[in-house]
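Hi L.,

As promised, ABC transporter ATP-binding protein:
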Amino acid sequence: MTRIELDRVVVRAATPGGPAPEVTVLRETTLDLTERRIALIGPNGSGKSTLARLVNGLVEPSAGRVLVDGLDVKRKGREVRRRVGFVFTDPSAQLVMPTVVEDVALSLRHQVRGREERTAAAREVLASYGLDELADRSVHTLSGGQRQLLALAGVLATDPAILVADEPTTLLDLRNARMIGDLLLGLPQQLVLATHDLDLALRCDRALLVEDGAVVADGAPAEVVDHYRASAR
Ligand SMILES: Nc1ncnc2c1ncn2[C@@H]1O[C@H](COP(=O)(O)OP(=O)(O)OP(=O)(O)O)[C@@H](O)[C@H]1O
């Protein structure tokens, strides 16, 4: 099993436009995450994305250390990023190639060497997600649900040990949100899921409530979600 540790991590950010004091985005946080599915919930701007991004080094701690399977994210960034897949809210952020099949092939660049072999492997990945008919389409012609599924397929094709997903269902309609949510929760990988969808959070193994840059509740999802609902009243 994989393990994500935060050891007295603080994240500060410069205030835009000058020498004003820095803002603390994440107050000192220590966590040991070994559960398979971990939900990050909390209000807009509370620090969920920041917490999620620390896991693959997209955000660096201002103090403290983040360890993924014992590897320091700051010092072993490349190794960590091979181990940690990341899915964004807006899949357009990670779909960069002209066609669907080329996009998955790009994800496979470290796994499969030859160009033709890579394309064949990409087609297999697409088929396993029911996306084979879209292989030669431009990514811009896909629906939001198809695009998120494709982004997820591309990340999972690299066989990450951990998947971090930052509000992956927020832009989707009910049906697609359910499809992507079910897929994520059914994965064998360790999952860190920042979400406003409390039903998804309730199906995780552990939930963290983030408020004002701090983890204010941590434990069984039912209890943490209750706490959140009560504090939002
Ligand atoms: N680089 C930065 N510079 C300044 N402020 C930042 C920076 N990064 C994050 N913040 C601020 O820190 C707070 C937490 O942001 P974060 O994106 O982690 O929240 P969130 O819980 O994911 O919010 P949402 O649910 O709206 O996506 C916000 O107030 C944000 O504006």
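The chain has a mean pLDDT of 93.

Thanks again for sending the construct details.

K.
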